[in-house]
Amino acid sequence: MSATRLQLLSHRNVPLLSRGPNELLAGGGPRVRTLTSQTLSSSSPGRALSSLSATRRGLPKEKMSENGVLSRAKVLTIDTMNPTVKKVEYAVRGPIVLRAVELERELSEGMKKPFSEVIKANIGDAHAMGQQPITFFRQVLALCSYPELLNDSTFPEDAKSRARRILQSCGGNSMGALQLVFQGIDSVRQDVARYIERRDGGVPCDPDDIYLTTGASDGIVTMLKLLVCGEGATRTGVMISIPQYPLYSAALAELGAVQINYYLNEEKCWSMDISELQRALDEARRHCNPRALCVINPGNPTGQVQSRQCIEDVIRFAANERLLLMADEVYQDNVYAEGCQFHSFKKVLFEMGPEYSDTVELVSFHSTSKCYMGECGFRGGYMEIINMDDEVKAQLTKLVSVRLCPPVPGQALMDLVVNPPQPGEPSHDNFIKERTATLSALAEKAKLTEQVLNTIQGISCNPVQGAMYSFPRITIPEKAIQEAMDKGQEPDMFYCMKMLEETGICLVPGSGFGQTDGTYHFRMTILPPTDKLTILLNKVKEFHQKFTQQYS
């Protein structure tokens, strides 16, 4: 030990726990004594500490390598890492996707496969699947990123006007500046509030209730962090739909919360059932403290659009059972089926009157990643909080401030989504044309997917009413189920992995989202261009027929 280090120790006490016979408390517990410079040997100050084991000094143990050389073990190992992280699973980017990436690399290296390309139909990444960005959005973002372009006459004036307004709201008139309002840029939150008021037929929205987020996922995880507390039977439980988007189960696992499954009714187009909610809640109360109910509408992975009556019933259920509602509404523009309509939870809540609108705690989420925008990479989003306790709201603001602010380009894009070109502005007609074309194409592909899948014996698919996915039910022969179990795989994982290896099509097995015992599914996005989607569906049909014949 250096003389300097010894001097530092001499001026402060280092607590040690001792259980010596003369140092026990009356109750038999450990007593704290102190290690001072007098305790250390002045003639050999390093000897006292070196006599302590490596473990007691907080150092990793040393181990002998094969060649006889001592090597220090890692501080962070699979055994010493956070155990809740090891429980996290995220099927959308699981082993199937990893193998798809390997296959792409093998193809690029010239290896022969029974297919010429890997078609990734596993994820709702619209632009990766060929969807074109909205011109106006990219023009404004380009102007914000490189303000010199404001002098370029090729950009329309309404795009320049939006860009100037966004830049004026940024520190130093730059999107590169850290924004000091941690809830998000003021002008953007004001535009979000006005958008919500228009969407919900005039229901008031306070910009102070808006928090801009790094995509909707960030807001969802933040709210779950606020909710989770307690131990044992008092540990927070959160109700999530099955099938579910794996973000929810992953976040709950990481936070050590209790996942409470309620099952959507596949026979009724994946609708919610109040009696099923009640069953799940009553069972959960035996071992945890249920505090929140999560709803995804339109649904992921199931593609259903809940009716207004269903939403009203869910709100009434949450009120009666004192549950906070979390409404994941990122697909609110993605509604395709005739007779279906998106109803925001907030609008229905306020239409039910003060008995509910003044009491039910609701947090709703939206994003730039889905709908007609598909701008997943910009990570823009917002959440709106309703009826939150003022002290909790202050804690929420503190929590988001720790992460400084969401990406400013994502905030700017969110502003454009909620404040697009208006009638009479130069970009309006082209914006409407592009928006309509994108949503119309998605509607056609939703119908095509349902129709083709339902022609395949052993596959049944509910109507894709909204969102970006189909979640068909598949029949897997008993022989294939047994082979999958012998390999330690879920049967639908075995099915999807074989499809990937034989056709190059990357889907996600239903077991990654949850499903009723004894049933099997896969999730497939409807995002590929129509010609590629047609090829994909035909390949699925050929594979399923071959697979069924092989294992019958």
UniProtKB/TrEMBL annotation:
Instruction: Mention any Pfam family matching this sequence.
Output: Aminotran_1_2
One of the protein's GO biological processes: L-alanine catabolic process
Parts forming coiled coils: none
For activity, the cofactor(s) needed are: pyridoxal 5'-phosphate
Q: In which pathway does it act?
A: Amino-acid degradation; L-alanine degradation via transaminase pathway; pyruvate from L-alanine: step 1/1
Chain residue ranges for the region called Disordered: 36-66
Q: Example GO molecular function term?
A: L-alanine:2-oxoglutarate aminotransferase activity
Residue stretches making up the Aminotransferase class I/classII large domain: 174-538
Stretches of Low complexity bias are at 36-53
The record lists the catalysed reaction(s) as: L-alanine + 2-oxoglutarate = pyruvate + L-glutamate
The protein's UniProt keywords, in alphabetical order, are: Aminotransferase, Pyridoxal phosphate, Transferase
Q: How does it assemble?
A: Homodimer.
Say which family it is in.
Answer: Belongs to the class-I pyridoxal-phosphate-dependent aminotransferase family. Alanine aminotransferase subfamily.
Q: What is this protein called?
A: alanine transaminase
This protein's encoding gene: gpt
